[in-house]
Amino acid sequence: MASFGDELRALGKRRIGLPELRAAWLRAHPEAREQPDLRRLLLHALRDLEREGTVDLPARGWDSSGSPALPRTVRLRYAAQGRVAPSPQAWLPALAFAADERHPVRRADLRAVNAFMLSARDRTPVPAPTRERSLQIFEDEKRLDDLRKGELALFEGRVTLADLHCYPVAPPLPYEMPPKPAPGEPVLVLENYHSYDSFRRWNREAALYAAIAYGGGNAFRQGAGNLDDVIDRAHAEGAMYLGDLDPAGARIPIGVNRRRRSEGRVALRPHRGLYGWLLAHGRRRSLERAPENAEIDGLGEVFPAGLARALTDLWSEGHRIPQESFGMEQLRGDGAELAVPDAG
After folding, report:
1. Fold for domain 175-337?
2. What are 298-332's pLDDT values in tens digits?
3. Mean pLDDT of all residues belonging to the chain
4. E runs forming strands in the chain
5. Upstream peptide bond of 129 is cis (omega within 30 degrees of 0)
6. How is 210-244 classified by DSSP, letter by letter?
7. 48, 226, 257, 342: which is deepest, by most CB within 10 A?
């Protein structure tokens, strides 16, 4: 197994921050993961490297959030230039491909995974959310999600989340059902929270939707799996969507529907009546950046042909329409007739 100094040199950089120091030390000493005095052990290891002439510790800039204080950064005296030759490493059979890896960051990630899987051979870890497991493996709660890129595996599918005894967690989907239940009606998902607030207040009396849900912009692309729980609890008939009339807002239901179809789930339906009202009466604002091609891939997968063309024309002219154009005043006025569920 590579030494602490080897792990630092494999990073190929001159200055190394505290999170990387922790991660490198744990890769060199995976058996110490459960030790209660990790900070003291790490400091001793850094002092040893300083005496050997491998690193320089700073005079100032120490992290005192715990005891003992640790340097926020250290300077490696002889940082590797470019790609480095791999240090001798005992790889598990499932990670045998890592022996040929030369990129220092990717090799460091593989070493961390290898160390965790080695430690799990004699025990069965309790399944945990990906960010909890990522912090345990990489000393970085987001690293595992970065590596898997929304998939259930990493390293080109060679290591699965099941191999790491963890699972992805979708963000919660806030929703409200009206006091008088409306079973058999759809759930209406709003992209923005001000629109969500207006619609849920209106629906408390109107009870035209089984529930009003808040998608939270792009977060809905991760949390859409929870939509089926809302549909079931509200005894709803599917779900409808209303978002901003800009390319980013259109890409949300496109992405959600592609994933839902791949998982055998029923697709979202756009609220055609409200999208049509917004195109006719909504406040037009300038796009911050007009798309190079206003005919966004997948637009016709969500929106009917006429609506898709109208959106393309809107963006080609450099305009967008916020969904907040249709709000509480419209819901309390003549616009309420358009807010009823339509055929989608």
Report:
1. Dna Topoisomerase Vi A Subunit; Chain: A, domain 2 (3.40.1360)
2. 999 999 999 999 999 999 999 999 999 999 999 99
3. 88
4. 15-17, 55-56, 62-63, 70-71, 73-76, 128-129, 153-154, 159-160, 166-167, 175-176, 187-190, 211-214, 239-242, 269-270, 285-286, 319-320
5. no
6. SEEEE--GGGHHHHGGGHHHHHHHHT-S-EEEE--
7. 257
